[in-house]
Amino acid sequence: MAQLQQGGPDEKEKTTALKDLLSRIDLDELMKKDEPPLEFPDTLEGFEYIFNEKGQLRHIKTGEPFVFNYREDLHRWNQKRYEALGEVDATESEPKSFIFMSEDALINPDKLLVLIHGNGVVRAGQWARRLIINEDLDSGTQIPYIKRAIGEGYGVIVLNPNENYIEVEKTKAQIQLSSDCSDEPAEKRERKDKIQKETKKRRDFYEKYRNPQKEKETMQIYIRDNGSPEEHAIYVWDHFISQSAAENVFFVAHSYGGLAFVELMIQREAEVKNKVTAVALTDSVHNVWHQEVGKTIREWMRENCCNWVSSSEPLDTSVESMLPDCPRVSAGTERHELTSWKSFPSVFKFFSEAVKAKNSLMKPTPMRRSNRIKYEEF
After folding, report:
1. What CATH number is attached to the domain comprising 137?
2. What's the maximum distance between 2 C-alpha atoms anywhere in the chain?
3. Which of 98, 169, 282, 361 could cross-link with 254 by S-S, CB 3.0 to 4.6 Å?
4. Helix-strand-coil percent breakdown of the chain, rounded to 5?
């Protein structure tokens, strides 16, 4: 019985021979025999994938999430493909933004001027498109600020806070995927889709003749770390302004640009206080209550900022405010979009006084009148 359970001499010899045979077989080489070459793309587009507007990796044609088992029964090849995708530098194909800088912006040891425009359709280097079209470049662009700054020995950085995403045309699969993601019952969605298709067919028939270059259905892909003016300001501060050699950094921020600066101050308070000498706001829309600005920041703003606001009063006249932050003075115009241009000479005078005050351990006094507003802390 014991011999039957353990197997006879012939059985042992067969087992030993089988083990010896298996030991000589290179299993990796055996798996490679029918395997496709391990050659993979080096871009997301090559893999036919893209990140959608929600930051999700999706197939360009099908709109589906990543599929690991791309080839059945080839686990090793699928794993290598997966690893190759993970090595792709997504930054090569992802949308990017830009800023303008003078040649000495990061190496100028003395002064650096940072310009931030407002929200809306304006782009880097512009204050107001309406002024550019209807009046002139001096009033509508940042060119006068840039020229004077360079002439007075400043380095210059021009921010681009409104370029937050790119629009790309949706594929048919992506359009269908958007429709399929609805929470509506299937029957109701089918009826709705049918009506939409019929309506679209009629509209396209007439549109083909009326507007040959009709717009396609698009989706927005946001720029990493630059998805809003506030994010953009923080990104440029972290990667450029804070790395600059300038002993004195100055900001000119118009309208929503002022809000973006205040948010930067909230997020990088110690750094900003250490590096920024003075801030000129022009009709800024920031709000220290809504943005929950702390007391220490409000105190710093009162001493180092000035807001030139739209007003019927003469230029630099003190204007009362209900908010306990920086002093407000008249920009010499009641037009919001003109405040940066009308206050132009006073801004550079303010900066010059700020440097002198810093060097003599005094604070600048930007207003014409001496009745500076005293705020009560609440």
Report:
1. 3.40.50
2. 116
3. 282
4. 45, 15, 45
- CA 374 to chain CA mean position, Å: 37
**Same-domain check for residues 356 and 244:** yes
CB count within 10 Å of CB 146 equals 18
CA dihedral 112, 114, 115, 120 (to 10 degrees): 170
Q: What tens-digit pLDDT sequence spans the chain (378 residues)?
A: 444 445 566 677 767 766 666 665 555 555 555 667 777 887 777 888 777 766 677 888 888 888 888 777 777 878 888 888 777 765 556 788 899 999 999 999 999 999 999 999 899 999 999 999 999 999 999 999 999 999 999 999 999 999 998 877 765 555 555 555 555 566 666 665 666 666 656 555 555 555 555 556 777 788 888 889 999 999 999 999 999 999 999 999 999 999 999 999 999 999 999 999 999 999 999 999 999 999 999 999 999 999 999 999 999 999 998 888 899 999 999 999 999 999 999 999 999 999 999 988 755 555 544 333 333 333
Q: How many CB atoms lie within 10 A of CB 207?
A: 13
| Active-site annotation, residues | 255
In a domain, 129, yes or no: yes
Q: Is residue 31 part of a domain?
A: no
Asked if residue 316 is part of any domain, the answer here is yes
What is the number of other CB atoms lying within 10 angstroms of the CB of residue 36?
11
CA angle, residues 9, 11, 12, in degrees to nearest 5: 65
65 is in which domain, residue-wise? 39-89
